[in-house]
Every structure is written in structure tokens, then in C-alpha cells.
Amino acid sequence: METPQEHPESLPPFLLAFPGPLRDQLVAAVLSGEKVSTTGLLAEYEVEKEELPPVGERSALIDSDGREIAVLELTDVRVMPLGQVDLQHALDEGEGYDSVEAWRAGHEAFWHSDEMREALGDPSFTVHDGTLVVAERFRVVERR
Fold this sequence. Notes:
alpha+beta, 5 strands, single chain, Sulfate adenylyltransferase, 31% helix
């Protein structure tokens, strides 16, 4: 019998950012081991009517060309107010941030982008300290 590890196409997709240079940068950071965490908006799950992924779930890391690059396993999933994100989480995102303030500025620029606002269906969407975010930690279990 075939297992999901042998055929990642049977796994849910793990998507970082939108296709393009930012996704390519983030996928490379995952593959290098620099990126072991990511942060999304709880509102994204609500708009998509998706449940939060459980710890232990495996998913296929997808690049900008739609290719399955690796299999990831979630090791931690937390919902918290944006204002409670700490330095370790910001560092573990592997994007070169050296402070929570720099991490937040980078994420706010993404979350306030036209593309994200369109995806959320709210052209004036903005975040604040109380905005609920989903902080996920993961590990690469297989490279494709």
C-alpha cells in the first residue's frame, strides 16, 4: 500500500505567501532550515471556512510553479493576538528579522497588501495588537 510520504500530492498544500518572489524566498528558507515557523491570519481560515490544521499533520510545500517541493509536519499550532508574538517566533520565521518590530512591519506590509485584502474580501483590512494570528511551527520530513 502506498503511504502519503510516497505521494505528497495526496497531502494538503502548504502555501507560503502568494506565488512569486516572496513565496520563492520563503520556500528556499524552509529548505535551508532557516524557516521553521510561519504566521497567518485567523481571518484567512475563517474566510476560507477551513479548520486549523492539527499538530502532526503533514502537508506538501508548494513553490510558485505549483510543484510539491517537500513534505512538512506541523509541530505546533497556536492562536494568539498579534501583540503577543515574541522574538523567538520572529527569528524562527527565517526571513532575517532581528526584532519583533521589524517582523511585524514586514508582515503588516503583506497583510495590508491589495492582494491580501482582496483574498479576505475587505479592501480596508488592517491589523492591530488584538488581531488573532495563527503561529505554526513545522519541520521538513521529506524533500522532493
